[in-house]
């Protein structure tokens, strides 16, 4: 599962906020030496963690990602790189490529939330990769992003054609799968729909 020629290295291009759904941010990853940009939707707290990692802001007490890296060092493991290897229904999947010892040829691949994987990679100054297939299918140009054409990415993160009841079921499933980023976006969408319903009721 070593990253191959069909993967491209990415760097953090920027973070763009969306008003709908609320508290959603597009973390835009730019292809190194290329023109494709991959927007990954994350929640507010996840965006803050990534910004702290990107800017290498010193915190008086170690955050979770700092603690994870310290534990890796303590047990003799090292992070080699992070890869986004799959996207399904607006959810991206990533893994951490870990090496048990400096002389080992074997890598261990640990599944991780994309926001966690990116924050850890940035803190450790390690490369970030994504599969070409994902960049081909979901990549945007810099012009698209600068013109604000990110709605397709935000709409992928939360279904726009579901009832509140259907979204509630999806949220429960997301929580059961520990996909808390998606659960938070679904929660915000449910609140938005309920608010719109209340407003329409008061205007009738």
Task: Describe the fold and architecture.
- With 204 residues, this protein is of the alpha+beta class.
- The chain has two domains: 7-157, Bifunctional nuclease domain (Roll), CATH 3.10.690.10; 164-203.
- It has helices spanning 44-55, 64-74, 114-123, 132-138, 142-146, 151-157, 164-176, 180-203; strands at 7-18, 24-31, 37-43, 78-88, 91-99, 107-112, 128-131.
- It has a seven-stranded mixed sheet with strand order 3-2-1-7-4-5-6.
List keywords for this structure.
204 residues, Bifunctional nuclease domain, globular, single chain
Largest sheet: 7 strands, mixed
Beta-strand segment tally: 7
CATH class of the largest domain: Alpha Beta
- In terms of DSSP E residues, the strand content is 25-35%
> From N to C, what is the helix and strand string?
EEEHHEEEHEHHHHH
Instruction: Domain count, please report it.
Output: 2
Structural class: alpha+beta
Fourth-level CATH superfamily of the largest domain: Bifunctional nuclease domain
Shape descriptor reads globular
Q: Termini distance? A: 58 Å
With helices defined by DSSP (H or I, 4 residues minimum), what is the helix count? Answer: 8
Give the gist of this structure.
This protein is α+β, with helices and mostly antiparallel strands and 204 residues long. The protein has eight helices and seven strands.
């Amino acid at each position: 599962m070593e990253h191959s020629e069909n993967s491209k290295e990415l760097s953090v291009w920027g973070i763009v906020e969306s008003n709908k759904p609320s508290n959603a941010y597009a973390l835009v990853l730019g292809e190194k030496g290329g023109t494709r940009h991959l927007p990954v939707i994350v929640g507010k707290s996840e965006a803050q963690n990534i910004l702290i990692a990107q800017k290498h802001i010193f915190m008086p007490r170690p955050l979770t990602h700092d603690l994870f890296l310290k534990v890796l060092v303590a047990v003799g493991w090292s992070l080699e790189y992070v890869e986004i290897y799959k996207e399904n229904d607006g959810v991206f999947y990533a893994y951490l490529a870990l090496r048990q010892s400096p002389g080992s040829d074997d890598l261990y691949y640990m599944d991780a939330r994309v926001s966690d994987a990116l924050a850890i990679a940035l803190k450790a100054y390690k490369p970030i990769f994504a599969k070409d297939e994902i960049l081909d299918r979901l990549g945007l140009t810099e012009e698209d992003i600068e013109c604000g054409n990110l709605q397709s990415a935000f709409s992928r993160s939360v279904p726009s054609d579901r009832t509140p009841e259907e979204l509630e079921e999806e949220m429960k499933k997301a929580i059961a799968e520990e996909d808390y980023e998606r659960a938070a976006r679904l929660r915000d969408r449910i609140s938005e729909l309920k608010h719109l319903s209340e407003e329409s009721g008061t205007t009738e």
